[in-house]
């Protein structure tokens, strides 16, 4: 009897903890990280149906120049010449085999069933409280059903007081940014579809985001070398930067879905044919992230 009890106790000590304990997140109460067991593959997306992306760019605060004038209601309203970022994503879809719808109408995000007609949803420089209660619920249900989220630039300046959304960003949030200036981006992961073929170091211009909190349990894809910023990394609210490792793009599985995010994309030139050093690498990186989130290529390698 004593031997059996000792054997049982040893087994309990040596046995690995439950998967939920390994992968659960104490801060956000979800399964998140780089382990694909956090993904819900419920068969909601059939490649035979093609690939569709919904771009959401509603702003409830400051509006970036690359978004241009606010869009009209409904789905796919007419675009103006200055809506350069949305137009660029639409063109990427036309050139690379995926359909793109776009909107700034929150009612278009009010139903998880409607969102499930898209392989991924992109928040493109949204700002502040850009979702109402029905849209928040729909987004969470969509992600939990195996949907994918793409966050670009000021997607980090959105829904500040919603912890679940902060977790979707990788346990990260925008705090402040440096001056808009050139810097050197370092490709720290070359296996992912969004980084494959990029130079190890490449020049780019942006307003380099400082983050509070700092991303955790994610796969970092790109970083900025703070020593290359001529005007320094210190932000307008005094953030001193992140030192040797300052991430600007990363990916993770989150609460059943997928999330690929980048803080890059501030400069209007990054979205147009106007020359900007390194813009071809930014476009290549973004396209790879979109394709992996849509399911056209492996995700978060």
UniProtKB/TrEMBL annotation:
Any Pfam family the entry gives: ThuA
Segment forming the signal sequence: 1-20
Stored InterPro entries: Class_I_gatase-like, ThuA-like
ThuA-like domain mapped to chain residues: 83-291
Keywords carried by this UniProt record: Signal
Domain of life: Bacteria
Residue stretches in coiled coil: none
Name of the protein in its database record: ThuA-like domain-containing protein
Organism annotation: Kribbella antiqua
């Amino acid at each position: 009897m004593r031997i059996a009890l000792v054997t049982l106790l040893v087994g309990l000590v040596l046995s690995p903890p439950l998967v939920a304990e390994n992968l659960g997140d104490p801060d956000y109460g979800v399964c998140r990280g780089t382990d694909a067991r956090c993904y819900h593959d419920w068969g909601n997306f059939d490649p035979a149906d093609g690939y569709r992306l919904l771009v959401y760019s509603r702003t409830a605060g400051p509006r970036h120049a690359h978004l241009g004038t606010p869009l009209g209601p409904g789905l796919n309203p007419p675009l103006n010449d200055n809506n350069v970022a949305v137009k660029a994503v639409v063109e990427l879809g036309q050139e690379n085999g995926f359909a793109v719808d776009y909107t700034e109408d929150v009612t278009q995000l009010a139903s998880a069933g409607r969102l499930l007609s898209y392989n991924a949803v992109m928040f493109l420089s949204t700002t502040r409280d850009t979702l109402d209660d029905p849209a928040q619920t729909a987004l969470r249900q969509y992600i939990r059903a195996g949907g994918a989220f793409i966050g670009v630039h000021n997607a980090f300046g959105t829904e500040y007081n919603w912890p679940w959304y902060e977790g979707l960003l990788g346990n990260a949030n925008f705090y402040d940014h440096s001056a808009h200036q050139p810097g050197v981006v370092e490709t720290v992961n070359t296996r992912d579809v969004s980084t494959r073929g990029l130079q190890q170091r490449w020049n780019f211009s942006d307003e380099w985001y400082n983050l509070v909190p700092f991303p955790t349990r994610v796969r970092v894809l790109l970083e900025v070398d703070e020593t290359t910023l001529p005007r320094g990394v210190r932000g307008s609210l005094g953030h001193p930067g992140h030192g040797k490792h300052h991430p600007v793009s990363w990916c993770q599985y989150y609460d059943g879905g997928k999330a690929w995010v980048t803080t890059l994309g501030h400069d209007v030139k990054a979205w147009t044919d106007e020359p900007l050093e390194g813009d071809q690498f930014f476009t290549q990186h973004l396209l790879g992230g979109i394709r992996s989130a849509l399911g056209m290529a492996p995700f978060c390698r």
